[in-house]
């Protein structure tokens, strides 16, 4: 009886571990497929991997794209056959209480960038619901970058503070 219980417990634990690995592999593939769709300018595949209420936050402070706006903005790039090419260098995927979120370092035309996102199930399939892209800046370059964008930041802060919607 003891041996049977031990064997059952071992099988149960092993199957739980392998299920998590399969789920992580599936999620990694989903994110990789999304990036590949952009790199190959496949508009339909790219946006079919996003939820109907997806949000894409770009590197510019003004870029908070709701899905329909992002599709309209992106369409000319995809139609021209040159969207963007992001290849994951390193990725972490987290799952907690049915929420899946991730961060990744990317090789891009802008150098190394960071992406982070949330996946949620829509019609039983995991899709990108929220994605944030940012350009990474080595700490020793922050002061010069801050100086470079100082005037733009001053102007945009004024615009934000004067905006009645905010």
Automatic annotation (TrEMBL):
InterPro entries: NTF2-like_dom_sf (IPR032710), SnoaL-like (IPR037401). It comes from the Bacteria. Pfam families: SnoaL_3. Residues 30-137 form the SnoaL-like domain. This is SnoaL-like domain-containing protein. The lineage of its organism: Bacteria, Pseudomonadati, Bacteroidota, Flavobacteriia, Flavobacteriales.
């Amino acid at each position: 009886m003891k041996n049977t219980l031990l064997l059952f417990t071992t099988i149960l634990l092993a199957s739980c571990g392998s299920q998590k690995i399969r789920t992580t592999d599936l999620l990694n593939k989903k994110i990789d497929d999304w990036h590949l769709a952009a790199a190959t300018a496949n508009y339909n595949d790219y946006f079919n991997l996003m939820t109907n209420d997806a949000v894409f936050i770009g590197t510019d402070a003004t870029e908070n794209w709701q899905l329909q706006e992002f599709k309209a903005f992106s369409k000319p790039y995809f139609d021209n056959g040159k969207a963007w090419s992001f290849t994951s260098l390193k990725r972490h995927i987290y799952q907690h209480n049915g929420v899946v979120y991730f961060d990744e370092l990317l090789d891009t035309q802008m150098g190394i960038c960071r992406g982070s996102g949330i996946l949620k199930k829509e019609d039983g399939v995991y899709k990108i619901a929220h994605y944030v892209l940012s350009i990474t800046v080595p700490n020793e370059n922050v002061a010069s970058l801050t100086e470079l964008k100082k005037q733009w930041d001053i102007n945009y802060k004024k615009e934000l503070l004067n905006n009645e919607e905010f």
